[in-house]
Amino acid sequence: MDIKVGTSGFSFDDWVGPVYPVGLNKREWLRFYEEELGLNAVEINYTYYAMPSAKTLSSMSDKTSGGFSFVVKAHQSMTHNLWSDKKREEMVNNSGAFEKFKVSLFPLIDEGKLTCVLAQFPYSFHNKAENLEYLKKFRERMEDIPTVVEFRNRNWHGEEAIDFLKENGLGYCVVDEPKIRGLMPFNPVATTDLAYVRLHGRNKNWYNAPLEVRYDYLYSRDELTELLEDIVKLAMKATTTMVFFNNCHAGSAAKNAVELAKMLLDEE
Predict the structure, then answer these.
(1) What is the CATH number for 159?
(2) What is the DSSP letter of 154?
(3) 162-219 per-position pLDDT tens digit
(4) What's the total number of domains in the chain?
(5) Which domain holds residue 135?
(6) How far apart are the first and last CA of the chain?
(7) What's the confidence (pLDDT) of residue 213?
(8) Are 43 and 74 in contact (CB under 8 A)?
(9) How many helices (H) and strands (E) does the chain have?
(10) Distances 198 to 27, 76, 120, 261 between C-alpha atoms, Å
């Protein structure tokens, strides 16, 4: 089984102390993340807020070993600014955002370090014909770059959506998040040979809460053991499995990722 474990981002000031030694230069954080924490993959999430540059991603790559893997989150213009048919049509017909985004990925692609792009769609992105069509166009725009889709709205839960992703070569992001009405349930399946798991924590204070509150959660050993069983079963059916912790507040994601990675070694 090829299972890689990491966190959704690595550059957080509130990780100084809980994760990174006080005084460690920020430029050394990613190196420390791989070499000292022993994590072999990372999700780059700042790219949702700001269009990435090839120079920045190349610099990150230079700080990691050849076996390290990156996932890059799609820019918000590609996933969130779609509140009308006109906006969806503009994104499909005007490929500028997609092209600019893809060009930035070339350093990671050239070095064999890009596993996929993560396209996380908002709760307002419902399972309807117009959005299914947009997902097809998204896949076309990404060309041969593997793409994984994360849904937030529960109306994407079900065999119909899973079959759609399989038919269109789109990966499915398995999410663990609070059991709150409307959110996606934990559904450990894969729609391509790449399995993808994203662990957000189970903080029930999800809505109308600042992000640092929403993701303020530390998984217990029992919860990780429960998740590990499903992750291993999933990995047995996939070529590669990526597992990322997004409960990033105060370093909880790093702590849980390190613990899960050690548990995986024990499984072997």
Answers:
(1) 3.20.20.410
(2) G
(3) 999 999 999 999 999 999 999 999 999 999 999 999 999 999 988 878 888 889 999 9
(4) 1
(5) 3-267
(6) 9
(7) 86
(8) no
(9) 11, 8
(10) 26, 18, 11, 15
CA dist 167 → 49, 78, 159, 211 (Å): 30, 21, 12, 34
pTM assigned to the model: 0.95
Q: Which two tokens stand for residue 150?
A: 């994360």
d(CA 7, CA 17): 17
Give me the residue label for tokens 């005084």: 23
H-helix or E-strand containing 138? helix 129-142
Region 214-241 average pLDDT: 96
32/207 Cα distance (integer angstroms): 34
Q: What is the 3-state secondary structure (H, E, C) of 229-259?
A: HHHHHHHCCCCEEEEEECCCHHHHHHHHHHH
List pLDDT tens digits, range 84-99: 666 667 666 666 889 9
